[in-house]
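worker-03 picked up job from queue 'complexes'. Input manifest follows; two sequence lines, order preserved.
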Amino acid sequence: DTGVSQNPRHKITKRGQNVTFRCDPISEHNRLYWYRQTLGQGPEFLTYFQNEAQLEKSRLLSDRFSAERPKGSFSTLEIQRTEQGDSAMYLCASSVTNEKLFFGSGTQLSVL
Amino acid sequence: GEDVEQSLFLSVREGDSSVINCTYTDSSSTYLYWYKQEPGAGLQLLTYIFSNMDMKQDQRLTVLLNKKDKHLSLRIADTQTGDSAIYFCAETRGNTDKLIFGTGTRLQVFP
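worker-03 finished. Artifact:
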């Protein structure tokens, strides 16, 4: 069990650029979640996949955000035309059921 | 985290017990969790409790759930400096699979 893996660990970008993050869940975990965490706050739910189907999206996920999980394994989260307000830690989690979610170490995004 | 509330800070002496409290508002919560986050790291699942239980013990950790008052607590016995971190409570609700997190309690353990 290698745990949930996220890449990159850190990303610094200029406002207006596009960024993409990757999450590799624990193998055989069919559920995958994306959360966003800003400084001093708890994580906020963004979106959730069961296998390749995106089952729920938060209102926080604006049109500039898109997530995919094409083969039901790894997932990508893309942010287009980044804004300074997008600066946050983006956390991925996976699970078999909704009973226990296991989180990755996150991707820290800084938009300059 | 507007529906799940925690106090922001807790400071304890090494060897003492720590009690971190959490209140939630949704009575349909099915599972309630405690996660630990160290600086620059992701979230580590510490323990969780099903909503039809009122207590769960796991080594140094004791979770108490008062469903009537919608109050959850985490007691850490014999607190160590390595326990210094931010602790988040979280709930899942009904048929949804998303976790709703509190704002976190920063635990500081001093010698």
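worker-03 released lock.
The first strand of chain B starts at residue 4 and ends at 6.
The interface with chain A takes residues 1, 4, 30-31, 35, 40-45, 48, 88, 90, 92, 96-104 of chain B (CB under 8 Å).
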